[in-house]
Fold:
Amino acid sequence: MDQVRTILQSHPHWSAVEAIYHRLTDKGYKAFLAGGCVRDALLGFKANDLDIATDATPDQIEQLFEKTINVGKVFGVMRVLIGGADIEVATFRNDGTYKDGRRPDHVEFSSPEEDAKRRDFTVNALFYDLENHQILDFVEGQKDLQKQILRTVGEAKKRFTEDHLRLLRGARFAAQLDFAIEEQTMGAMKEMAPLVKTVSGERLRDEMGKLLKSKNVPLGLRVMQETGLQSVLFPWKALDVEWTAYPGCEIWQNLSLFLRGASADDLQNSIELLKLSTKERRGIEDAWNIWQAPENFFLQRLGQQMQQMQKPGVAWALDVLMKEGHFEERILNLFSVCRGFGQELPKPFLTGEDLKGKLQGPAIGICLQEAFNLQLEKQLNDRKQALVWLENYLKKA
Structure:
């Protein structure tokens, strides 16, 4: 237990957790660390977040702490802002009936035992007693951790019926923890896979983003394939579980790699399914276009290539191609030229004001684009040269 204690106390928000814990216990309430942070400490690594579970109600939490955020008060979930940290503090609860496959229609505040029994997987239903430095395990989650098995708490079908996202979370946790899925849990996932289609696109996007950043992405994709989740969500990719990891990627970059082999129609369907932001959509679409025919990009003149490089999706797609050993010299040279201009390309020497009364309609854009290409290609070095070039250009127009 010393290792668990050391890992938890090494978290940068530990002092905030202690402050919250002491405030709660001084007022007579129970408080434990809960969920993923306990699981991860038992596995030997630090969690991203430290979450607290308590028998204090949301109203009592609001009274005890100066700064709180109501993120789900009706479900007993608050956030406490203290010491520069943002800590989730949730009340022990029983869940009522789930009617929408997402959240209960009501909750009843309860005990640690009851709270553990309403959670998704046994390894996520552990508590840590800060006073006695002990693990509280009401669902045999530690046994499953030791066996490296992912198992639902209680009846698998019931857990997945309550929240359909848990089907995809099963694949994600398998990938994240590199765990096998217990037989009955796996069977329920196969039987109930079609229900994942009822989950909101935003939740699917977040879960896929986490899966694609996990320790063993191919395992997660294989679970999706074997359970039918991949056929339901991404039918065009049903047989594909290949994955090459690029550390440090943003969610949209990983999603672009996942969607790389899609047809144009399948790409749009997948983007719509995941309810991606406009920025994410553009990044993925730009990367996809490059990957479909990279040679077309290099048929453009240098100035056009440099302007295209300002799009995050284009720069990302070229970086991936280079890492894969394609067009290495050309891409390296292009990145080098772009770096020569600094973080952003320079402002054009010429603007529409210079062409007032001289050109009309599309001809204005064509002229300005040509001038900017020449500027980026170092054939025009200042505004004076650009104006001389414009004078000659107009004579030929």
DSSP finds 21 helices and eleven strands in the chain. Residues 244-345 form one domain.
